[in-house]
Hints:
The structure is a single chain. By secondary structure, the chain is an alpha/beta fold. It folds into two domains: 1-42; 50-228, Lysozyme-like (3-Layer(aba) Sandwich). 35% of the residues lie in helices and 11% in strands. The chain contains six helices and six strands, in the order αββαββαβααβα. It has helices at 2-42, 87-97, 139-142, 163-166, 178-194, 208-211, and strands spanning 50-51, 68-74, 103-105, 111-113, 143-149, 205-207. Strands 1-4-3-5-2-6 form a six-stranded mixed sheet. The longest helix is centred in the first third of the chain and has 41 residues, at 2-42. The radius of gyration is 26 Å and the shape is globular.
Amino acid sequence: MKKRILLIKLVVFLLLILSGCSGGLQEETAAKAEVKKQRVVQTQIQIPVIKDFMPNMNLVPRSSIPTHIVLHFISNAAANPENPYIYEDIRKIFIDYDVSPHYMIDREGEIYYLLPESRAARHSGKGKLIEYAEYNDQLNKYSIGIELMAIGTESEMQQMMSTEHYKQIPQEHIGYTEAQYEALNMLLDDIIARSKEIKRDRMHIIGHNEYAPERKTDPGELFEWGKIMLDAE
């Protein structure tokens, strides 16, 4: 009988110890989860953006780590030359053509966040990079797309409009604004801080025309590369 009582006490004692350890493990697990959660938060966008995600038809899961940023220009000048930068009109162009960048910067420097960087946006199409042969026609998988509301030179816009149509565009709508360069620099800093494979140089930050010169002219000769403070390669 005494042995049975001792055995019961021993079992109870062990259960109490295990219960205490279990509680400690639960607290440790919760603490680790909280640290992990905080780390995730720190990888999010740290600058002011207007989140307006595109429809699901543009959300293609990314399978590769981004290494490049591709710059574009966009406007609705073909349909509305006198007022080519109405956000809703441009967003509709993306929807109608089933394309989208990750970000778009308007004339006042507002940054629109259109797709998560974890998704492969449809912004580059077919093309090639000499230094990255494996990216031929595949740059969407490896890049983040940024559109700037801007209009290029007359020759750069010939694919979209006639000379007569181009002349209807007010001069202040041609080229880029200082607010856009400021916003773009801020956005580049933020992206690169979270994407270690993207370097702030001309090999990793490129124009659409460099990838697809036979099809595209953007961001064009009016874009001043010297204003985005790239590192020497």
